[in-house]
Design a protein that fits this description.
This protein is an all-alpha fold. It contains 9 helices and no strands.
Length: 195
């Protein structure tokens, strides 16, 4: 449920799958899965000190996250698919960079902790009867579920990847870059308009 909406992370994973291949898109998605798992751990084990810190400083997290998303949009807008293809062919494509960039982008949106808190409360995970092992199973399920979604999404995009020409990928980079840039602006503006 957390990963399925195609926000900036989904658009980024699709863009990386088209530009760099399924492995780069999937590893990028795993970065989001790792961040979501950390949020689920925090919510599942009720680390109240961290949650209250995030709640007290959520505006800073949101503004920083919005700026990162805007930068990412500009970077994608100016990405040259021909250069990406050459990097892929010469194996200079670093999967660790793909993973870490999406991980930090996802972590910069700590409001997801509150989504997990609400979700866990909805399934009565917060009850006293839930033990350490049961919470661990649910958190493991979060990782497996999100990783499965990114695998399915990047596999489907990769299947149709050969139908895209370099010119269409160039245009998709432009569109994805603009969308991601404005999602970053929306994240920053929501600090003042959504209380």
């Amino acid at each position: 449920m957390v990963s399925i909406p195609l926000g900036p992370i989904g658009v980024l994973c699709i863009q990386r799958t088209l530009n760099k291949g399924r492995k780069a898109g999937f590893v990028s998605g795993l970065g989001a899965s790792a961040a979501d798992t950390i949020f689920a751990l925090i919510a599942g084990y009720g680390i109240s000190m961290i949650i209250s810190f995030v709640k007290a400083h959520h505006i800073y997290f949101q503004v920083i996250g919005g700026l990162i998303v805007m930068y990412l949009g500009i970077h994608i807008f100016y990405t040259n698919p021909v250069r990406q293809l050459r990097l892929q062919r010469t194996s200079q494509n670093k999967l660790s960079q793909d993973f870490l960039s999406v991980f930090f982008l996802t972590v910069s949106n700590p409001m997801a902790i509150f989504f997990f808190l609400a979700m866990f409360a909805g399934v009565n995970l917060a009850s006293a009867s839930m033990n350490f092992f049961m919470v661990g199973l649910v958190v493991g399920g979060v990782f497996l579920g999100t990783a499965s979604w990114w695998f399915i999404l990047t596999t489907l995009v990769n299947i149709f990847r050969h139908r895209f020409r370099l010119k269409s990928i160039w245009w998709m980079n432009k569109v994805a870059g603009v969308i991601i840039f404005f999602l970053g602006i929306a994240a920053i503006l929501s600090v003042w308009f959504i209380k």
